[in-house]
Amino acid sequence: MRDTGGNKGRGLLKTIDWKLVICWLILVMIGWANIYASIHSSEPGSIFDFGCRSGKQFVWIVTALCIAAIILFVLNPRVFEGLSVPIYLFVLALLIAVIFLGIEVKGSRSWFAFGPIRFQPAEISKISTSLLLATVMSQQGYKIGRTKDFIITAMIILLPMMIIVLQSETGSALVYVGFIFMLYREGLSGWLIFLVGMAILSFILTLTASPYVAILVIIAVASLCICLYSGRLKLWLMAGIPLIVFFAFLPTLLDLWSANILGDEGVAALAAADGDYAAAGLHKPLASRIKPLYILLGSAGLMLPFTVFTAYRERNPFSHLAVISTIAGIVLVFSADFIFNDVLQDHQRKRIEVLLGMKEDPSGVGYNVNQSMIAIGSGGLFGKGYLNGTQTTYGFVPEQSTDFIFCTVGEEWGFIGSAALILLYVFLIYRIIRDAERSREAFTRIYGYCVACCIFMHLFINIGMTIGLMPVIGIPLPFVSYGGSSLWGFTALLFIFIALDRNEKKYF
Amino acid sequence: MKLNRENRLIIGLCTAAAILIAKLFSIQIIDDKYKMDAENNSMVYSTIYPTRGVIHDRNGNILVGNKVAYDLLVTPKEVTEFDTLAFCEVLGIEPDFVRDKMQEYYNNRRRIGYQSVVMLKQLPPETYMRFAEIAYKFPGFRGQARSIREYPFNAGGNLLGYVSEVDASFLAKHPDEYKSGDYAGKTGIEAAREKELRGEKGYNIWLRNSRNQVESRYSEGEFDKEAIPGKDITTTIDAELQHYGQMLMANKVGSLVAIEPSTGEILTMVSSPGIDVDMLADIGQHYREIATNPYKPMFNRAVQASYPPGSVFKLVNGLIGLEEEVLTPNTYYPCSMGYHFGRNKLGCHAHKSPINFEESIMMSCNAYYCYILRDLLENPKYNEIDEALDKWREYVMSFGFGQKLGSDFPSELGGFIPDSKYYNRYYKKGGWKATTVISLSIGQGEIGCTPLHLANLCATIANRGFYYTPHIIKDSEHVEIDPKYKERHYTMVDTTHFPKVVGGMYRAVNSGFGSGGTASIAAVEGLEICGKTGTAQNPHGHDHSVFICFAPKDDPKIAVAAYVENGGFGATWAAPIASLLTEMYLTGEISESRKPLEDRILQGNLMDRVKVSK
Fold it and tell me: What is the pTM of this model?
């Protein structure tokens, strides 16, 4: 069969995963139609009018098609593996350069401008990172469990991520967190995902509830894990749960106690004069000086040596790790305020505040989300019909052809249409994972998972944002949102995978 | 299916998708909160602008009212072909203007989108009504009622200030309170009382169909918000008196201030030349004209110009002398055409000699006050002249001089009273003596004060020793003034000394021509006006004419200060103006015998005497 190699082998067109290509085509067409719907009233003209966004998107689509064809039919898929290091370094250089040479768009410097054409290097850095990850991790003898390998892998992901954060594009950087799913598939301990999840949970709990609640949850989960691991679930149920329940009600109990001692008026006066005691040189009553948080930390501190000792005796490294994670978690809880106030930028903080319901703000930051949810909500089951949307057409939803394009889908196509769109994405991602799993080469598999992770993160964050599940993070919906950079980037990302996949199949 | 990592990830994917779809299901199908009307409507907010608070005078007359004008709004997206000529004719505008505007909207079409923009501002109702009759021919155009200012009296342009649309720099300073298109008070009372006057905006919520046409009220107006009108303000100004004062000061540069001594309320405050209220209503049109006027009509001289007080200040020095016991009311001093010291002399005019304290006020003798100041500064009570001068300054400041009085004007000037440090810097310590600063005795030299300070001095003397901080806003139903305006401020001079000064002021006016009284021209039969003239020397041209007076002598109702730049003797211009104002306030008319005087003042023009920097 293998006569001259190259593009021969099994028929070119037979080996391509046409389902992926068709998925791509449908998504791109949906995007194009919806971009037209979102602008047709403010810029009347035909869908092909090059003066407006739908016309431009048509140009992007045609060029994206060319890119796809070049990747499929012209380039030898082997080059991706061979050139992954220089490509990665080149993109890294672009990412750094854009900080200094780029133009400022909405407070972030992440775009190059060549005359009328704008281009965002962050879009291709997903490809270069995926390629390098696939190259490094598919090497003989690579083991993710080995510290050296793990650190190299982490660096490959974190380097572009940090530079993108420096560009003030925290949203785009968040997408890289998705690579953790690929790492999991490649053997990373599931506990890592669990830890990341716990970290996010305790961060949110600290901000919305209190450090007390966050620490209690961390301790409860950690002790449960330790007990589960060493098969002492019964002990945890009998000793752990009552303790946790006790601590959960401790603040209330303390309040009641001080109320009994001081009487109701005393408590009221205390609440009013909290902090004035020091100034007045008075001693606060004992009951009110005991902060429940310190009792909790104190008891946890007493338990620690005991847990460590037991773990040491039983040679149980898991417990050690659990204890370390718990301490790290408590540190995170106490630094949550710092991260929230000093690391995050103003607009990001506001978005998180609104999402977590810490502040009601229907006219400011919450306005976008509120309008977007009204637009989607007003679609109902069947939608208002193509080009009949009112909320999206009259400019109530901001960024409606880029980041908020899903509003137009939701409003005009209703629940049926938007659910179908989500299912289409699910099918696309599922199909990529299936193809990746079937491939014989680790390189193709790992790259495939990277593609799936990127598309998934964009899908979940973008749609989650428009329906109020996620804070407003400005990242596009793959293949659908308006924009050349993003369409080209995702098309290349996907078609490199299709090419790799086809390259394998053609010999089998 | 075995639970390997691939499958776990796929389950995770499906769970995430399920979460998204569940949330979609909840907002699209279950939750009514996000639903609009079944007919695919969307909400439109239209702003209701509040009417601004009305400004009343002390008698309930409206100084500043409101009238309706219309802004013509256009929604460029809804405009179809229309008859431009008919449109221009009915609105009285040029076709080019319309063409330029439409081109501008087209260029900015993406930014404007479906919004409405203001095309013409503040159309008078007559014009708008003519347009409204044929408005159906011009889809996309509509009117929006705005309330704009109206001034029934031509009184107090400078005091009232103007209202105009907020500009970009104003918006930058008040980011949350104002939106583009709002009006705000920029100067005078309008600015000082903006918070009370402006009111609160409201809105109507309308429903709009998918063709962007407004159809009906949302929930029958249940969620609409009414605009809250601004609070009315009552000023202490007497509109008619203010108007009369402006007429008297016409074609003269200077100020005229009248205070009710028993309350500190400002009855009249004229700064001439001032701003006509007609200009205020349409400040945008006249702003250039006002700003380039060499006489600076925006400049409120009554509180912002610092002048030497001239002989009026002798009253203060006399009172300090009595309190410090360097003289008694029966002290006689000689005057031979002035006060001689060494080879120098501070001149005076011809009058009888020697004279006592009351006569010194009546005849405004310069020498008499040189003796007083010298005795004050060389008083053996004090170790050195520095201490004596600083004590003198303390006395002067207790009359309100040399500092901001604390009135409710946004920009009041403090004036200047020199202290020993000031002279030590000029002449070195020990390098000056009483005769060096002798001109302080007659209110010349380094002293600077505003006409408001002089009116306040007059009110203090009328009250026999205390004043209320002058102010222009009165307590009213909605607005309460600062309690500090109801506190008496006593001077450091004992109240028992004041009647002697009052006696001198009475004789200055009421001794009849030929008696030597300097202000006989101000006398009005039956009104018992007490006054003091001043002629402030002016190295740049004609002397300034100054006069303060109050009346009636016992139970004073009004205290007036007139300061006419380059007017010459106090008795020539300032005294007639102040006395005419007093007469008008107390009797409501000008007596037949004083009509010629009134005519002379009303027609007098001193503008060419005033040097202006162009």
Answer: 0.57
